[in-house]
Amino acid sequence: MRRENQSCVSQFLLLGLPILPEQQGVFFTLFLGMYLTTVLGNLLIMLLIRLDSRLHTPMYFFLSHLALTDVSISSVTVPKMLMGMQTKYRSIPYVGCISQMYFFILFGCLDNFLLAVMAYDRYVAICHPLHYISVMREELCVLLVAGSWFVCCVHALLHTLLLVQLSFCADNTIPHFFCDLAALLKLSCSDISLSELVIFTEGGMLFILPLISILCSYIRIVTTVLRVPSTKKFFKTFSTCGSHLFVMSLYYGTLAGVYFFSSSWNSNDKDMIASVIYTVVTPMLNPFIYSLRNRDIKQALEIFVNRANFFK
């Protein structure tokens, strides 16, 4: 085997977030609370959708997978970050680092695809309400979710296979709180031009296409609502799409704000801020957004609490 196909590094060192030592305890408590809220909130939504037959609809089927993705993407990165903040043990084995990167890419891609699928579901519900049941049948819903999982698994596997062909000969310090693909490529002493080309083409395409799908769905929704102006119809549409619009705006808006409107930050700072947003902040807020604005979820929660009190 040629040397360029071998890794000379057995582990990597994660520098973590740029937090002052005296502030470590405060931020550890903050991120631990946010992580536990993320896990408990999203698992509760998944449980309610599973138990309440009224929530066995396409919209909540997609929402349950989004909740699973939110739990997963936080669990891939945050526990290791918390352990590093508390114990100062910031090294991660080579295999563990590659695995973490694979699952981060997988769930990050899946989050993007599920938002697009949910936008399409809202488009059919509002623009073609009479055909909603026949269009959004169970087979299509399963196919959309399974297809999203398949494409994202292949996407993550492709980048992982390209990465493991590279050598890491000297510096093993990653200026991040998890094994980010871009940070790993900067450490490689091999030719990374192919990996960069795949990121720019295939990776860019898998990010842009779901975004275009979301924008097209909402453009059609807006034009349908404006075709027959009605205050009642407007509020019904807003109640139907409000939660998804808020999540989508939070997901894409904060990333755009970090990368395009904050020139005072360097590249590493932007990467870490963006990563904190979509691994800690957004997954934590999703359960509140969908539960506080959703009457069906709130009713299911009330029934669940009443049953729990009854069996005490």
From the spread of the alpha carbons, the general shape counts as: globular
If you compute it from the alpha carbons, what radius of gyration comes out, rounded to the nearest whole angstrom?
21 Å
- Count of DSSP-assigned helices: 10
**Alpha-carbon distance between the termini?**
64 Å
Tell me the number of strands: 3
Assembly state of the chains shown: single chain
- Percent of residues in helices comes to over 70%
Q: Would you tell me the overall average pLDDT?
A: 83
The ordered H/E elements are: EHHEHHHEHHHHH
Largest sheet: 3 strands, mixed
User: How much strand content do the residues show?
Assistant: under 5%
Tell me the strand order in the biggest sheet. Answer: 2-1-3
- Indicate the structural class: mainly alpha
The residue ranges in which pLDDT falls below 50 over 5 or more consecutive positions are 1-7
